[in-house]
Predict the 3D structure of the following.
Amino acid sequence: MPGLSGYIPRKGRSVSKEYDVKDLSLAVQGVARIEWAEHEMPVLRLIRERFAQERPLAGYRLAACLHVTSETANLARTLKEGGAEVYLCASNPLSTQDDVAAALVDRYEVPTFAIKGEDNETYYQHINAVLDRAPHMTMDDGADLVSTLHQSRRDLLANLLGGTEETTTGVIRLRAMQEDGALEYPVIAVNDAQTKHFFDNRYGTGQSTIDGVIRATNTLLAGKTFVVSGYGWCSRGIAMRARGMGAIVVVTEVDPMRALEAVMDGYQVMPLAKAAAIGDIFVTATGNKHVIDRAHFEVMKDGALVANSGHFNVEINIPALAEMAREVTRIRSFIDQYTLPDGRRISILGEGRLINLAAAEGHPSAVMDMSFANQALSAEYMVRNHGDLGKKVYSVPEDIDKGIARLKLRAMGIDIDVLTDEQVQYLASWESGT
């Protein structure tokens, strides 16, 4: 196996102050997976090479709460090469790749606290385990580190110089904290970078969500009515890929502008109360609570498949469905079938958690290359500029965002045009007319 000559992993699970993973003997497989992903992440690799020389993060402790995947492992390696002490936990109980977690501990010496399928108590124990390191920076995917720090670990806030946030749901939480005056340190909204949400959210979520639904169910999408709740960047990607597989796509929205855009993009748009009665497959991606609720379950078809691709498992009101059901059966690895008193069967995929990570492998490495380049460079920016930043949510600086796009194009072998001096002058002037 390339790159693994002479490498013998330790065996067995160990719960210690240094790590908590399922099985260290999985590390060989995890290293192979991490190295495979690295080939598709040339931008992050270039950053890692520079970080190894310049060590811009030396002396800083970084707590990361991210999906523990092969792509995240390459980010952790990059941060470590930059000099940071990195401590990693999972941002979702079902998203961890156990072999990758083992490799991070055993091969790359990144203290990792993550086990696929961990219960809620263990999930928060792992969050607190990385916070016990008194980090200088946080790197979140859903703002659980920030939330825990502000609610129950406030003694650590004085040590924090800044953080980054990966996903839409987390940015929403952080902006709510800022609005309430509760946010105690600056955070960069990586999700808002164009090289993140235009690509990761749309193309990454679109492909990986469809992958998760198919892996969980082996269902045929062609000819099925596929209901997408929301029409943000993630939902657009899901709708686009479902249509590409031959599904009849229905979009539900609360925002009139996004609903109008969905109509102009060629989708049927209607209230979820109406779509619930005709849908075969439902996917939520809104970042909100109880998007699919009791009233929707009451009218769904027998055999309806319900999944979530928003961050948390609250978009589908599973407790309400459980109250309605006379029987709940796990019929496949990622399918819980709820049988209602009238005999109708509604299946929840991946326990209502992120279906693309619960049942599949998450976003392709090539798209996470840009997202995690933003994370690495935002961490470097925070170290250099935290003294000038207030207790607010900040955007990724434009020069970082565009620089990542240029690097990605170069890695793909693509050249683009450059404005001439005359064109630059014309765009900066107001005198010229028709």
Notes: The two ends are 65 Å apart (CA to CA). The first helix runs from residue 27 to 39. The chain has a mean pLDDT of 95. The chain has two domains: 14-196+363-411, 203-358.
